[in-house]
Amino acid sequence: MKKIILLITLLLIMIPTKLCAVGQINDYGIKVNNEASVGSTHSESFYIDFKNVDKNSRSLGLWLVSFELGYDESVFAIESVSDDSNDWTTVIYKEDNKTMVSSLFTNTGGPNLCIDNTLFCGIYKVTINFYVKETDKSSREIIMRNVMAGAFNIKDEENPEYDTDEMVPIYNEGSKSAIVNIKKANGYTLREPLNIVTNEKPTTQSEPVSINSKYLNYKRDDNYLDKLVIKDYDLNFKMNILNYQIDIDENANSLEIITKASDKKATVEVKGNDNLKENDYIITVNVTAENGSIRTYTIKANPTKIVKENHTNKIIAFIKKINYKLALIIGGSIIGVILLIIIIYNIVENRKIKKTLEI
Hints:
4-stranded antiparallel sheet; elongated; alpha+beta; 16 strands; 6-stranded mixed sheet
């Protein structure tokens, strides 16, 4: 928790002097739950939609999110906080009599990663659970304001440096609120509420703090092929299909295979294609992901006597493929054109004969 609070403090210090021009907060607010009962738990979800921070970005991703939470502490006590995707580790603390909600991205897998597979892309959402104390008040306001985030603008994807010098602050000074109506159910009971809000104040540090080492050490797990081509042969390749069969010329003992990995940090090794007979006509393509995991594609080549068609055979085969009705139409059109030419020729010749007779 101390580390998270320290990192949030660094973000707060940086924000006034280094506003972000790359990403921005598109929308934020509270998914309002209007009704609350005394003596029970009341949940409110807080979301932030970051514009230009999405899965299509190779250079920008979120690491820190923080906002100020306003609520009546005489009515509500914060008992827990969570997020649906388990992407964030969140702490709620007091600073200068303000309640701050701060989250650090701590997930290295799952659907919310940017293309670089280290940072968060998508809509941030946390749910805070309040205990409703004994009160005579009929409604209370919950406020979300001063939203801020720390993103990394990764200039060198091959050798990223995730420290606070590379952080790009994103900030919005506005506020959103929700009105919660409070009621007393028949026979309600009260209990001593929990309170997870810490009074520990952050401390500053002049040296930049490196991001959690698991981000720096993260290895990609993509071991798929994006391209698999066998020269002079047709292969219906799909990256999620691992086994293939092709008919090859019985005299062929090698095949030219062209491959491309889905991930640029994965490696591809082709075995068995240089000497088919010695390898029982089995070719393997091993794709090794950055993290060492291997996916194997297998091609079984079947030696077959293949008759090479000459030009005449190709023409005959082409004619056979032509639709019969279409052939009639084309043939009729050609005959019609020939007849028209003959008619025009006869008309011209008759005119020449007529002029000769008149002379």
